[in-house]
Amino acid sequence: MSFPFTDAELEAYLDESLPAPQMASIEAALRGDAALAQHLAELIARRDAGVHSLGAIWRRERLSCPTREELGSFLLGVLEPGLADYIRFHLEQVGCRWCLANYEDLQRQHTGSTPQDQLRRQKYFQSTAGHLRPSGP
Question: What confidence score (pLDDT) does residue 114 get?
Answer without folding.
Answer: 72
